[in-house]
């Protein structure tokens, strides 16, 4: 066990700020090390104490961007600053207990050789410890704390996030020992993306598409799927139906790795939430900063430019909601977004998409900033300029 302790995150690898993909036995060994460290501090003959849990800080102050040496993909990474979960602090005593409860449940799940969805884990913990887990958010944060403590991926813990994603178009999926799925002959709902990353990692992918188009809205995805856009424009359409889940990000990353010359465009709302979604696909998120590099892709924003807004009637705009303003403030304070603003703004001008980005990030500061309504977006799409330049230009 001493060897495990020396080789684990509690020893030599504290220099590394990334989450490893580990076998169940290794994850269970790391949990055992955490327990031994806790008991050792508690049983100290000189100064017994309840040890704190040292977690990598998941805050904007502790994050930045790193670039890949082998590609033009950048991703969020977390530096070496730590935060602590302590039983002795009133404001995070419950969070301290939640970490141990989640580790206990994961230890049991891994021992049984199973995987559970995050929602299923919530119900298990709600039944077992209702005092500490009253909502899904408590479980989600505790899982991220465990990832930060043990330095292993969520999937390595035996936990799957529920997937909302779907894809359709010029893509054939072939899982070993299963029939292949031709995504070009599916209905408008497309192929549902499984939340099991192990299954997604084993898929054989083949495609004759020229583009990958990621859509924020499921309604737009289904509209384009019904129109069989991919028969006119050889492409793969993919959506997470809102904010991207891990499984959708994972399969998009796999597509980018399998077809490195296939450009990826994101069709998102012209508002702060749309930019946040784009950045999650492109760079990852701070909350999952230890894993972000595993899912980051070179995604470009497909849509309008600020100069194009004069073509849109005032009736097509809506006032931003308080939640949008909150997201805008968060984006403006983000160090990595300020660093990467020029690359975020890169991408083709496409008339009629109904979505877009003003040049630069100044539009986020505009109190009068508004978003384009979806109905108007569809109308604009229907009357798109036939002289629209090729997206590859």
UniProtKB/TrEMBL annotation:
Q: Name one Pfam family in it.
A: TP6A_N
Q: Which UniProt keywords apply?
A: DNA-binding, Isomerase, Magnesium, Metal-binding, Nucleus, Topoisomerase
Task: List where the protein spans the membrane.
Answer: none
Give the domain of life. Answer: Eukaryota
Enzyme Commission number, as recorded? 5.6.2.2
Q: Which cofactor does it need?
A: Mg(2+)
Gene Ontology biological process terms, A to Z:
meiotic DNA double-strand break formation; meiotic DNA double-strand break processing; reciprocal meiotic recombination
Similarity remark: Belongs to the TOP6A family.
Which PROSITE patterns does this one have? TOPO_IIB (PS52041)
- Which Gene3D superfamilies did the record assign? 3.40.1360.10, Winged helix-like DNA-binding domain superfamily/Winged helix DNA-binding domain
Q: What class of enzyme is it?
A: isomerase
Using the record's annotation, list all stretches that form the Spo11/DNA topoisomerase VI subunit A N-terminal domain.
Answer: 95-159
What this protein is called in its record is: DNA topoisomerase (ATP-hydrolyzing)
Q: Name one GO cellular component term.
A: nuclear chromosome
Every Topoisomerase 6 subunit A/Spo11 TOPRIM domain range: 211-336
* Reactions catalysed, as given in the entry: ATP-dependent breakage, passage and rejoining of double-stranded DNA
Q: Name one GO molecular function term.
A: DNA binding
PANTHER family linked:
MEIOTIC RECOMBINATION PROTEIN SPO11
Q: What residues make up the catalytic site?
A: 123 (o-(5'-phospho-dna)-tyrosine intermediate)
**Where does the UniProt annotation locate this protein?**
Nucleus
